[in-house]
Each structure stands twice: as structure tokens, then as C-alpha cells.
Amino acid sequence: MEPISDLNIPEKILEIAERIREAGGRAFLVGGFVRDALLGNTESRDFDIEVYDLDQETLLQILKSFGRTDIVGKAFGVFHLSMKGLSLDFSFPRTESKIGYGHRGFLVKTNPKLSFKEAAYRRDFTINAMAYNDRSGIVDAFSGMQDLENGVIRCVGNAKERFTEDALRMMR
Predict the structure, then answer these.
(1) CA-CA distance, 4 to 134, in Å (whole number)?
(2) pLDDT (tens digit per residue) in 1-43
(3) Alpha carbon distances (Å) from 132 to 19, 41, 127, 166, 171
(4) Which pLDDT score is estimated for 99?
(5) Which of 16, 36, 47, 61 has its CA 20 to 30 A from that of 132?
(6) How far apart are CA 129 and CA 144, in angstroms?
(7) Could you give phi then psi for residue 125, rounded to 5 degrees?
(8) Across residues 58-68, what is the average pLDDT?
(9) Please, what sign has the CA dihedral across residues 19, 22, 24, 30?
């Protein structure tokens, strides 16, 4: 398995992470990029960044200084940043509670003070519930690295609950 620090993370992502740190926050690459990087895929462009310990307005101002910023879902705490050669999604830690039918029947609450484990619990598989920060390295609350090494796809939490509440989740 490849160490992420050996991969070519775009310098702009590291610059944005530093600006977030200077403002009192923490930025982590999450999900697909981390999984792909650990598998040795250096071509991954699936850059999702989760931001902790910062409010939405401060993050929005930081992102605007780097490029065109769109609010994809303010209620969900998701911002999209377009820059030359890069397309980045920034989000805040959040929890989801099932309140209705289908894959949209969730109550979503953002909370930049959640622990990584609390935020990662909403993710589908352990291999997608890892994060990377250039200072902290890999954060792996649900043994996703071990599952990658063993070639296992395992749910975070109870599989029956995960896929009963949103049957399409496995397909996405």
C-alpha cells in the first residue's frame, strides 16, 4: 500500500489547508481520494475536503480568495471551488438521521466540532471513511486501511440499517 505523503497532492490544496489552519480550522482529504491513494492510484482527482473547527462564512471567504466558489448546499455545508485545473468540494462534518423515504429522506446537521469518528460514521464503507491531513497523516476510525489490505468491503456500522434506510446507497 502506498503512503499518501509520497503522492502528488496539488500544491493549491495544501495552500488552502494552510489558510484554514491559520484561521483556526483543520482540513482533511476524505473518501475516494484517500482510498485510491492508498491503493496506489496517483491519478485520482476525487478531491473532497472536510473542514473542522471553522464556521461557514470564514471558510467561504478563504475559498473565494482561491477561485470561483459556489454554495452547492448551504444546509448541508457543501461548497464547490473551481480553480484552474482543479475542482474541489469542501464540506463540514455532519450527521444524518433518517426522517423519510428514499435517499433524500434525511435530516442533515452540520457541526464543525464533531469528532472525526462521529462524522465518519455516516459514510457507507470503512474504506471510504478514512481521511488524510498533511500534518496528522491518515485518520482511520473504522479500520479501513486493514480492510483495503485484506480486500474486504465492510460497512461502517450495521449493514442492514445502512441499506434499509437508503437502498440505492450501495449503488452510489
Answers:
(1) 9
(2) 555 655 668 899 999 999 999 999 999 999 888 999 888 887 7
(3) 17, 15, 13, 27, 25
(4) 67
(5) 61
(6) 7
(7) -115, 150
(8) 95
(9) positive
pTM higher than 0.90, yes or no?
Answer: no
Q: Which three cell numbers stand for residue 16?
A: 488552502
User: C-alpha grid cell for residue 90?
Assistant: 469542501
**Which long-range contacts does 20-24 make (Cβ < 8 Å, 24+ apart)?**
20/51, 20/54, 20/59, 20/62, 21/135, 23/54, 23/58, 23/62, 24/53, 24/54
Q: What is the grid cell recorded at 132? A: 488524510
**Of 158, 48, 37, which is closest to residue 94 (Cα–Cα)?**
48
- For 100, which DSSP code? S
Residues β-bridged to residue 50: 28, 91
Residue 165 has pLDDT above 80, yes or no: no
pLDDT tens by residue, 117-163: 999 988 889 999 999 998 888 999 999 999 999 999 999 987 666 55
| Residue 134 to residue 116: CA distance in whole angstroms | 16
Cell numbers standing for residue 96: 444524518
At 151, list the grid cell.
480486500
**Cβ atoms of residues 162 and 169 within 8 Å:** yes
* Polymer length in residues for the chain: 172
